[in-house]
């Protein structure tokens, strides 16, 4: 049960006068945080399940008038309590592909995703949006943290729950991770110089999800691949150079590195066969959801602090994993 500091079931129970409340999982992370922010900007009452209500990120949510419930994915009772009375749910789980960060297995990720769907049915949730990945689908990728999401998708659809599934392209934010070489005047990634790949800004994921919740009749039952821009290795080089005000040279990860790192090699193969490169209809997405940030716009706007930090990072101390 959440800590009861106001004589209620939540950490900061709000009187929403019958407004439709959305429970956002992962609200202290990138996607969930973007969704919570977009929903709040449109006037939705928002709840979040947090492990540590005393953390800086949880306090920031509280300051933005998000209702906090204490719990975690392994505690079904805490999920049930947070979901009780909610109109809709945004479902995202820690990815088993980030095991070093979260310490969860493929099986745990699948169990958490299925449990949220089950509890949503039990508590009478009207609409669930599940965020997957663009590599998900009927063909197995051979990578557990992608195939786990395909299994969760299938399960959600099989429950009959009113749901929408989104499959985001690679986050623009992930291009700014340390160790990519920006501080050395270079940038490495999976794309070949002339190969096209799609990207999306995390804040646009929030924008899209908020619109989906506002138009359930239009979006329930759909699986939507989402992206905001298409780039190549060469256009990445141009964009990064222009933003930095100095030359940034683009290189695909070298074959020698891919050969010795099975994880990176499999990711490169999925980019090459198109599943991770993405095939969203960006023009159609803009018709439905409005303007979506290009990579250049992101670099000059919300991504600028991340970009400047990456330019100054000491990549020599970062080991690619």
Oligomeric state of shown chains: single chain
Write down the Rg: 20 Å
Secondary-structure element pattern, one letter each: EHEHEHEHHEHEEEEHHEEHEHHHHH
Name given to the CATH architecture of the domain at 1-168: 3-Layer(aba) Sandwich
Strand content: 15-25%
**What class would the helix/strand composition place it in?**
alpha/beta
The major pleated sheet works out as: 7 strands, parallel
List keywords for this structure.
three-stranded mixed beta sheet; disordered N terminus; 42% helix; 321 residues
What secondary-structure arrangement, pairings included, does this model have?
Layout: E1 22-24, H1 30-41, E2 46-50, H2 56-63, E3 67-70, H3 76-83, E4 88-91, H4 99-102, H5 106-122, E5 127-131, H6 144-159, E6 163-168, E7 170-171, E8 186-189, E9 196-200, H7 202-214, H8 216-219, E10 223-226, E11 229-232, H9 233-244, E12 249-252, H10 255-260, H11 262-272, H12 282-289, H13 295-300, H14 304-312
Parallel strand pairs: 1-2, 1-4, 2-3, 4-5, 5-6, 6-10, 7-9, 8-12
Antiparallel strand pairs: 9-11
Helix pairs in contact: 1-7, 3-5, 5-6
Description of the molecule:
This protein has a domain at 1-168: NAD(P)-binding Rossmann-like Domain (Rossmann fold). 42% of the residues lie in helices and 16% in strands. It has 14 helices and twelve strands. It has helices at residues 30-41, 56-63, 76-83, 99-102, 106-122, 144-159, 202-214, 216-219, 233-244, 255-260, 262-272, 282-289, 295-300, 304-312; strands at residues 22-24, 46-50, 67-70, 88-91, 127-131, 163-168, 170-171, 186-189, 196-200, 223-226, 229-232, 249-252. The chain has a seven-stranded parallel beta sheet with strand order 3-2-1-4-5-6-10, sandwiched between helices. A three-stranded mixed beta sheet has the order 7-9-11. Helix 3 (76-83) packs parallel to helix 5 (106-122). The longest helix has 17 residues, at 106-122.
